[in-house]
Amino acid sequence: MAIDAGTQSLRAAAFDPGGGLIALARVPLAEPQAPRPGWAEQDPIRFWEALCRATRALVDQRGIDPARIAALALTAQRGTLVCVGPDGRPLRPAILWPDQRVLEGALAPLPWWWRLAFLAAGHAGTVEHLRRQCELNWIARHQPEIWAGIHKALLLSGYLNHRLTGAFLDSAAHQVGYLPFDHRRQRWARRWNWKWSAVRVEPEMLPELVPAGGMLGGLSAGAARETGLVPGTPIVASAGDKACEALGAGCLEPDQACLSLGTQASVVVNSEKYFEPIPLLPAFPAALPGWHAPEVTVVRGFWMVEWFQRELGAADVARARAEGRHPAQVLDELLDATEPGALGLVLQPYWGGALRHPGVEAKGAVIGFGAAHGRAHLYRALLEGLCYALRDGLERIARKSGAVSVLRVVGGGAASDRVVKLAADVLGRPAERPVTGEASALGAAINAAVAAGLHPDYRAAVAAMCRVERRFEPDPENAALYRRLYRRVYRRLYPRLKRLYREIRDLTGYP
């Protein structure tokens, strides 16, 4: 069994040893709370309640015999912080990964040798921004009474694993937030590391880490009563959602990349060697024990499709409901009504900035508008822009890892044949769609299957559990057009607009 605690829903899935999806239960998550513009918080209890509802649905409604569950593994959204007291109860709402709060005012200076080193390397601004975005630093300044009461500072995975086992243990492959984590060695950083000076946290406030694929313990009696599962069910350490997607997509070879068309879009490879596609942005741990998952992300990703539906697609959504269809099917018709290149409309999909590339000042842009353009062209340009950004990420990864010849496409956007075909054309590579649409859950299930001895190793597990449903070849003519637009237009947009983005921020105060 796998638990996938995503951004919009929590899913519980049961797989057979051949990778077949036996049963799936999905529980929608409430919209994040926004006490102030740009903030995103959620009561952590809601995640646990959704987990219990999902597992009970598998048992009570789907007929899964809990005694036959060999092991359970959990994957979760990354970077969501949950602070708990000694009894494991949350002290405040969880700060979710989309949260944009920034710590204002003066920062305590780092030791002089670190300041000098970062200044010489040109990274001083990046480190300062990381410190200002660190949730624990914000809590320490603005909620000192809560900070003083923190027994453990957990990511969402650590909180849910504690609820399952009763122990403050988490997977090393989940530690991707603003914490003093050594990504290269996949353990907490040594005490002399600069991160201990940059982040307000003490070693005893962090959970003990277990490698991906290792045992976190057995399901506690209390958790068994709430989830409907059997006490003692083995709980296996897994990894973050993107790393699990890469494993669930079957990406084991160096020429394979996982293209995730989800709320947060990304391109990821599994690698035995450590490298950083963007300097100073560490490679995340992979779901494969000891491996790394170098990644480049488009923060707002296919969230932008939801944005388009909400702001410009009300008529499409209404028509889909009236005709008993999914809105994505109606949006596909917008692609059918337009030509590759969107009549010269080019979109830069930075509806949210990042730490290094793009920088924190980045904003979205659309150029090339003319009288002939309509909503359909804007929708195509939106998807093409997302794929251009993913192509940029893929090229950064390929410069360090070697050529990537095939894409495994997962995430909500992968359900559309037209979207996957467009991705193949823009990135100029064949795109393969796995059989299951639950790639992240399957990746976690592979961790559970190997730990339970259902397969002797990960290569055997991937060979048995991962299959491709369809392969999309890029159209040579379309690929050539997109290659020219990408190189001669898209790649030049951000360097030319970067200064203007900063001026917009300074003049309006909007981050």
Shape: globular
The beta-strand count equals 24
**Rg from alpha-carbon coordinates:** 22 Å
- Number of H/I helices: 17
Class derived from helix and strand content: alpha+beta
Beta-strand percent range:
15-25%
Q: Biggest sheet, in brief?
A: 6 strands, mixed
Could you state the oligomeric state of the chains shown?
Answer: single chain
Low-confidence regions: none
- Cα distance spanning the termini: 41 Å
- What's the rounded overall pLDDT mean? 94
Spatial order of the strands forming the largest sheet: 3-2-1-5-14-13
Description of the structure:
The chain has 511 residues and is of the alpha+beta class. Helix content is 39%, strand content 18%. The protein contains 17 helices and 24 strands. The strands form eight sheets. The protein has a six-stranded mixed β-sheet. Strands 19-16-15-22-23-24 form a six-stranded mixed β-sheet, with helices on both faces. A two-stranded antiparallel sheet has the order 4-7. A hairpin with a 4-residue loop joins strand 10 and strand 11. The longest helix is centred in the last third of the chain and has 33 residues. The chain starts with a strand and ends with a helix. The model has no long low-confidence stretch (mean pLDDT 94).
